[in-house]
Amino acid sequence: MSATNEPVRVGFVGLGNIGHYHADKIVDISNVDIVGGVDINPDARARFAEKYGVESFESYERLYDADIDCVIVTTPNKFHEEYAVAALQSGLDVLLEKPLAHSLESAERIAEAAANAEGFCMVGFHNRFRNPVQVVKGYQDDGRLGTVRHVEANFIRRRGIPGRGSWFTNRDIAGGGALIDIGVHAIDLALHFHDFPKVQEVSGTIRSQFGTRDDYAYLEMWGDDTQSGEFTVDDSVTAMLRCEGGKTITLEVAWAANRSPNEEFIVRGTEAGACFDKADDSLTIYETGRQGTDHFADTEVQTRHEDAHKAEQRVFFEAVRDNVPPSMNTVEQALEVQRVINAIYRSHDEQRAIQLE
How many domains does one find in the chain? Predict the structure, then answer.
């Protein structure tokens, strides 16, 4: 749509928990109207229609043919391609929840469709919009950190499998487990801190140690622990990425681990370092000096709390309204993340480092 005062009209594909999570935030964004939704589940359609006062459909064609400007796709990973490609081919702009797809081949087809589309596709890596992350990037741009050579990326839960027996733990639908669910965020943020260099080599190991245990003790889960479905995915990952320019990334990801949780991202530069803790949005800058005498200086940075998902949505809707694709969270960047995920799985299967061209 061209720049106008008319509200952006958005439709939803996938009316489960993530769809409601996005829709609840959009309700508070001015000049954006939720028009309708699509889901194959009749109960999900009924709940969405009642809650938001809109129509809901079983097939995407009826929604895409309606008077809408864009869609938000929040389906299980396997179905991203079908709905996103059809939306792009219909001339709609798309906000696609992470990951880009359940497989590299599917992700490549989405990227091809986006490259040939009138509209654009933005991918839901909302952590880039957290205020402490933007401070780190600002310090990088100002040269305060010097040259950043290494990023430690951690996303470790003590117990946090998102519902054993759900689609999250079915490899055919999700495409993987902890790596593709939360590791995708860690990889994206680490590459973001490195300004998305070319990844040259990936070495990784995956594990599945907790998901099938009868004595899996937990306090709470993201989803229902039915245990009636499959658990055919990884629940923890360790990986090393070597990038152009001598840049490196170490990755530790786990849905479950017998250790304390850790969501720290440590950015190591030649002049200073930064530690961003995603768990509480805290940020510490580590510096040294020789003024007076040699010393360490650790600065706690305080930022205003803002909802990263809402910030992401605002950027998306502004881009839709202005008809200008956003420069952040691009399909090309999401495809690079997908290549890394694929390489980690290959590295584990083939027991060797994988070279990326």
Answer: 2
Q: What is the CATH number of the domain that holds 162?
A: 3.30.360.10
Neighbour count for residue 49 (Cβ, 10 Å)? 16
Give residue 79's domain range: 8-124
Query: Is residue 343 a part of any domain in this protein?
Result: no
pLDDT at 50: 97
> Are 217 and 261 members of one domain?
yes
Closest by CA to 75, choosing from 100, 60, 97, is 97
pLDDT of 4 reads: 66
Of 124, 140, 173, the domain-final residue: 124
Contacts of 276 (CB under 8 A, 6+ apart): 130, 132, 133, 136, 264, 265, 266, 267, 282, 283
Containing H/E element for 18?
helix 17-26
What is the rounded distance in angstroms from the CA atom of residue 357 to the CA atom of residue 98?
24
Q: List the CATH number of the domain containing 45.
A: 3.40.50.720
SS3 167: helix
**Distance separating alpha carbons of residues 346 and 357, to the nearest angstrom:** 15
Radius of gyration of the chain (CA): 21
Same domain, 289 and 151: yes
Q: At residue 132, what is the residue type? A: P
Structure token pair of residue 309: 């998902």
Q: What is the pTM of this model?
A: 0.96
d(CA 267, CA 273): 5
313 domain residue, yes or no: no
The pair of structure tokens assigned to 164 is: 């054993």
DSSP string over 250-264: EEEEESB-SS--B-E
Q: What angle do CA 37, 39, 44 make, to 5 degrees?
A: 90
* 89-101 pLDDT tens trace: 999 999 999 999 9
| 160 and 272 part of one domain | yes
What distance separates the 2 farthest-apart alpha carbons in the chain?
71
Question: Considering only CA atoms, which of 199, 216, 205 is closest in space to residue 178?
Answer: 205
